[in-house]
Amino acid sequence: MGFFNKIKNITTNLFGGFTEADEAFFDELEETLILADLGVDTATDAVEQLRARVRKEHLRDQEEVRKALREILADMMSVGDPALDLSTQPSVVLVIGVNGVGKTTSIGKMANQLKGEGKHVLLCAADTFRAAAADQLQIWAERSGCELVRQHEGADPGAVLFDALAAAKARGADVVLCDTAGRLHNKANLMAELGKLSKIIDRECPGAARETLLVLDATTGQNGLIQARQFKETAGLTGIVLTKLDGTAKGGIVIAIARELGVPVKFAGVGEGIDDLKPFGPQEYVEAII
Q1: In 3-state terms, the chain is what percent helix, strand and coil (to 5)?
Q2: Where are the beta strands (DSSP E) in 33-174?
Q3: Cα–Cα distances in Å, from 58 out to 26, 61, 66, 75, 228?
Q4: Do the beta carbons of residue 227 and residue 216 sit within 8 Å?
Q5: 210-217 and 239-243 as β-strands: parallel, antiparallel, unpaired?
Q6: Is the pLDDT of residue 189 over 80?
Q7: How many whole angstroms separate alpha carbon 229 and alpha carbon 227?
């Protein structure tokens, strides 16, 4: 569990003092999981499943109970494909999310990883509303050795994406990573802009493999679930990028998102370095926190 070794074990004290799986244990476990941001519904569901397994399988010792809990949580997270679909040339990845969650930084780190895998990556600076967003992406393009398509601040995001797709086809790029404006999930006009970008992709690259990734800050807790629910309804999501998962037990929100929305976490960030955004492994994650 090397990648998640920065995550605090959320049940260390609970299992460290384990004597038996009695009602006091289950009550404390449920409280611990809620504090870890699984949310009430997910935590209650997990504990109920564990209680049933303990009874049915006559689980007694600490490791048996811990193993059962790992399996229950891992099963909750087993939704969708955690890998990016990059099956066409070009493939298109739209990256969305509210401002301040690390969206542009995550794009830069993804670009660096894909470039390291031998992909020809092209970055698209379609966040034309935030001051210096394109400049920030330019820095990441230079750091990762990837090409960038941008226009002036305030330009039409659709025009920037159109240019990026044309450049990708002309240059034989494997994947286009598109930065979008920091959307407020309750603003209909901003969501409509995402719909416009999707139509441009349909028109210019029909049949292209496409991902729509929502970047979430792990420290926002249950608000992250609210964001994910509303973005899924209006924009459609294929995956989550979870940032700021370093040194905190709050990342349990990803289990709630997977369980309630059926959307897999595809990347997780555990630090500030360019290599600190990695493909997400549900099994590895559960091993680290339990």
Answers
A1: 50, 15, 35
A2: 91-96, 121-125, 147-149
A3: 15, 10, 14, 21, 38
A4: yes
A5: parallel
A6: no
A7: 5
**In a 3-state reduction of DSSP, which class is residue 74?**
helix
φ, ψ dihedrals at 61, nearest 5° = -85, 165
SS (H, E, C) 255-274: HHHHHHHCCCEEEEECCCCC
Using an 8 Å Cβ cutoff, are 265 and 77 in contact? yes
Question: If you search the block for the tokens 């087993």, which residue do you land on?
Answer: 78
Residues in the chain: 290
Burial class (CB in 10 A: 0-12, 13-18, 19+), 229: middle
How far apart, in whole angstroms, are the C-alpha atoms of residue 196 and residue 190? 10
For the whole model, what pTM was predicted?
A: 0.88
Token digits for 217?
A: 């800050």
Tokens found for residue 29: 């476990």
Q: Alpha-carbon distance 229 to 122, whole Å?
A: 29
| Average confidence (pLDDT) over 38-47 | 92
Q: Using CA atoms, how far apart are residues 77 and 79, in angstroms rounded to an integer?
A: 6
- Average the pLDDT over each of 80-84, 114-118, 231-235, 245-249 and give the range with the smallest value: 245-249
With H, G, I as helix, E, B as strand and everything else as coil, classify residue 162: helix
pLDDT of residue 1: 42
